[in-house]
Amino acid sequence: MIKLPFEVQVIKDFPAKRIEFLVCTKLLRAVPGSRAVYNATWEAREVIAKVFGRRLRAKRHLKREWDGLCLLLDRGMNVPKPLFYGRTESGQYVIVIERIEDSQTALDLFQAAKTHREKFELLSILFRHLAGQHSKGVFQRDLHLGNFLIKRKQVFMLDPAQVRFYRKQVPKRRCISQLASLARYLRSEDVESLSELCRQYACARNWKFGKSDETLFRKQLTVHRKRAIKTGLKKLLRTSKRYLRIKSGKYRGVFDRGFCRGAEPVEFIKQVDPMMDSGQILKKGNTSYVSHFKWNGKDIVVKRYNHKGVWHSLRHTIKGSRARRCWLYAHWLLMLTIPTAKPLAFIECYEGPVLWKSYFFTEYVAGRTLREFLGNSNISNQERSRQIQQIEKIIHRLNAYRLTHGDLKFSNILLTDEGPVLTDLDGMRSSRLSFMHSSKDAARFAQLKDEAL
User: Fold this and answer.
1) What CATH number has the domain spanning 104-235?
2) Fewer Cβ in 10 A, N or C end of the chain?
3) Which CATH number is 368-452 given?
């Protein structure tokens, strides 16, 4: 990995042949083997430099990016101004564009929003912007919040290489599909907000949003939610802006960058067993060992899945570690806005080609178990009923997406100030076909209520 900051010499091809010097100061995004995006300075000016790695395709990708920016400007769209492009001394293609100061991606703003109202207002801005795009024949084929920059409610488009241009306005069916693609960031049960966003878009386009349009929107919303989850789960196992993939000696895994910021992940892995022993031991069994302690300023819970023999290890080597499955399922639940402990990392430890043990790291969740809550005589019947209804909504949502927790018991449902939280995802399973999915969780929760009440 190249140490930042570093200087790179660019032999400029356009708009005029000459040599330019860039100082890359911060890595914004990296797609291994494909491209890297940097904050950079050029002639005392703050810019964005995109370096393309695949030599056979790099020139084509650069040209598509440059032409896309120019066409968007011609159609009156807000985009960062293209400055120049060329090649480095090593032959890599580089495109340099204007940096929009004091701006944030819509994704960062959405994730930072603390209230539903803030999220709704952000999507309202984007829906109105999308109406302007579509009316000018601009169709973003890779539509997501990360491809918009916001500066004082002004929207700038990113990733012009993924834009398709129509001679006239974008066809209505495709417009509705894109509305659904953006609307998936809100909960599907928030019908009122979804309908209001569609009304705002229709008003901006002078459309009448009829029942057939509403039906198509709902169908496309389901399609885009499933597609986003599938794409998102793939990204969880590789290095990206948010995650760091580790492969060092016998250790493999993925860390949330915020979790390991300022620390050395491999050194932490080597010391995790002693730290677990000195922490608050929550469970110490033959199969797993769970401990709660603080590291790098964070309150965490670590679950270690122990080695139980060669055949046991071979089985998990073939089908994947339980820590890896918990990492993926935890993110899956959060994508569906189902509360669970925030996943921070997973680590797999190998002996030769065989998986020996694995670790799953989450944020510590302060709360009472369901048994403690229901057994508390100071809790009113109204509050009991409210919490039970919230848990039943979570189970219904799991069922709607053909997910089964598989081990619902008192200790695996925590009641917090924000509501119920599911923990211990070892038994979680998904079913592709509806007839294979059972209502095991609902039956088990009904049994828990009978026992407690």
Assistant:
1) 1.10.510.10
2) N
3) 1.10.510.10
